[in-house]
Amino acid sequence: xxxxFRNINTVWASIAAETLKRLGLTCVVICPGSRSTxxxxxxxxxxxxxxxxxxxxxxSAAFFALGQAKATGRxxxxxxxxxxxxxxxxxxxxxxxESRIPLLLFTTDRPAELRDCHSGQTIDQLKLYGNYPNWQTxxxxxxxxxxxLAYLRQMMIHAxxxxxxxxxxxxxxxxxFRDPLAPIPNVEMLQTTSLQLLQSEFxxxxxxxxxxxxxxxxxxxxxxxxxxxxxxxxxxxIIIAGVAQPQRPQEYCSAIAxxxxxxxxxxxxxxxxxxxxxxxxxxxxxxxxxxxLRNQELAKQLTPDVVIQIGELPTSKELRNWLTSTQAxxxxxxxxxxxxxxxHGRTTHLRISIEELGRWGDGEAGEAMTxxxxxxxxxxxxxxxxxEAKVRADVDQTLTTTEExxxxxxxxxxxxxxxxxxxxxxxxxxxxxxxxxxxxxxxSEVHPFFNRGANGIDGTLSTxxxxxxxHQSSVMLTGDLAxxxxxxxxxxxxxxxxxxxxxxxxxxxxxxxxxxxxxxxDPPFEEFFATPxxxxxxxxxxxYGVEHELMTSWKHLVSRxxxxxxxxxxVLELRTNRKADAKWRRENLGKFSVGLG
Length: 597
Fold this sequence. Notes:
The chain has 24 helices and 18 strands. It has about 600 residues and is an alpha/beta fold.
């Protein structure tokens, strides 16, 4: 690329785009609008090095960009015009912050002299996202002075870095532009400003020569952990593998398996973690902990002395209540600076990654741990494994013989049916809980994704499309309300490259509310909580040109999940009875561990 010298704005925008390309940017999502014209043109000119994707709806665009950042592990840029357009980015900004995903938000704006005077499509965009961005600033008015271009280059580098270190998250830059916004050559400007001189003397390679791809810095390895002695003393310890979507799941799961093997602690593995899908690496995975801990007597017998929590806690309320009641000493392994203990227990945050701890465990300290630990499994570990085997067998047997379309069986079937390494996006509300209850450990290496930062249903479809775009054929598990909340995501269809299968649990309303005490009060329950929408999804899909098929049996569903298509979007709809599903859970979840202990 060469710098676009047609006017001041084109120079400014192309310097920004070129800098980001050299840093490693590969995808930018652009929402249509006038004020953002210089950036839209500059990024479009960077093809094919940067893929520029046009998405109409700003909320959908921001979540699509979030999905891309999740899948690739590098920042994605999303651009919009001035006014309320940028406000529609807000839910994705919050999710990016809470789930630690690098996202660059470029809002464009009128210059200062056109603010606070009722110039059209102008709002206060400074600090538009409150305290959620890792960093936010408004850039200077475009200038072609070389010092100002160097300033712009540095702002792009800093934004790229701040979106990834020390904790990944969103960065917001507000770009004010004066007219002309289009790449219209301004002959008078060329003659009377330094633009002509700059064009004749500008050395592209020299200006960008120092830029290299910048990634998050590694933590300094630890040599002699002070927590080692206490861990080695305990034969009643557990490892909790919480919600996680690591970029290198194999390394992540191997590190957890190494820690489990060394300490001989069981691993309570959340379904929203790759650990259950790398079961061949770890013989001590406990997948039914939520069901086990519903047995109060057994929960007492399983009281730990040591709890090692990897990342954020699992979703399970049963597990959280149990940890609160036991008051065990707890260590949280996570490299961020965030507080990951909503239970406010006897907790020590170890600001390291599990991969780093795994590498440490392979060294001299790891050898010391191995030699100091018992050669045989403790009775505590054996109890956990025995109970897991019994409850898992009961769950599998029960669901195998369940012919009716109970929504929880969908998660169980997906865990055994999807092609190896399939990315799957799991929507919030009941799907994430069904995955935690029923997802069966396997060697599939299926890669789970989710928006559990703020736990909302905003942008569900758009995030899944962002993950699947130019990726392996992917799957989304969602309820009807989460999908309906983001049907504008279907507008991405013509830009989408790859395949997404949507497994839609249609129980005509918010099934999760059936599990709450408010469900006993109707009215107002149905109208204000369950909120049935009575939508014909076949007609909805036809409107967007999306394939739709109604699943009539579990065998029918399985036949559509492996192999997966390679192109397009399709919806596989399962119609279930919301109240019958809730009744099944009430009657069965507590039974699986009855008689154990």
